[in-house]
Structure formats: structure tokens, C-alpha cells
């Protein structure tokens, strides 16, 4: 799981989900793509709330490609 509220990987420090997190999630949800997408939408909603609080008044970029888009193309 990411470090909150920054939503960065606690191991490598890059934006979560990093490559390692994506691989772990794909393995965990190997037989359940709808479940993975549902999980990622919920995570994206939590990230949006955290990042909005962390950076008030700053418009966030579209987080869908970061959180859901990569898995939807699998």
C-alpha cells in the first residue's frame, strides 16, 4: 500500500502504483479483473480525497490513467 497522504510507494518513492505494485496487484487479482478495477476505483477515490486535502486550491490532474487506466488495458 502507498504512503498516505502523498500516494507514493513507501519502498521506491515514486507515484503509487509503481511497477512493483502493479505486478503485485495483477498477481493478486489474476482471475478477477472486475474485482481489480473495482478496487482501483476505490483507491483512486481515496487518493483524490487525500491529495485534495494535501494541496487545497490546486486542481488535480485526471488520476484515472494512473490508478485505473493501466489495469483496464490488460
Largest sheet: none
**Runs with pLDDT <50, length 5+?**
none
Q: Structural class of the helices, strands and pairings?
A: mainly alpha
Average pLDDT figure: 95
N→C terminal distance: 21 Å
Radius of gyration: 12 Å
Number of strands: 0
- The helix content is 55-70%
Strand fraction equals: under 5%
Total of helices: 3
The coarse overall form would be globular
What does this structure look like?
The protein is mainly alpha-helical and 74 residues long. The protein is 55% helix and 0% strand. It is built from three helices and no strands. It has helices at 19-28, 33-54, 64-72. α2 (33-54) packs antiparallel against α3 (64-72). It is globular. The protein starts with 18 loop residues before the first helix and ends with a helix. The relative contact order is 0.17. The mean pLDDT is 95.
Topology:
Elements: H1 19-28, H2 33-54, H3 64-72
Helix pairs in contact: 2-3
What is the gist of this entry?
The chain is mainly α and 74 residues long.
Amino acid at each position: 500500500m502507498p504512503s498516505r497522504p502523498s500516494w507514493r510507494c513507501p519502498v521506491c518513492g515514486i507515484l503509487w502504483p509503481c511497477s512493483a505494485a502493479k505486478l503485485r496487484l495483477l498477481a493478486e487479482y489474476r482471475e478477477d479483473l472486475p474485482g481489480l478495477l473495482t478496487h482501483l476505483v476505490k483507491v483512486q477515490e481515496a487518493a483524490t480525497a487525500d491529495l485534495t486535502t494535501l494541496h487545497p486550491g490546486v486542481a488535480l490532474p485526471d488520476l484515472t490513467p494512473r490508478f485505473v487506466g493501466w489495469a483496464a488495458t490488460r
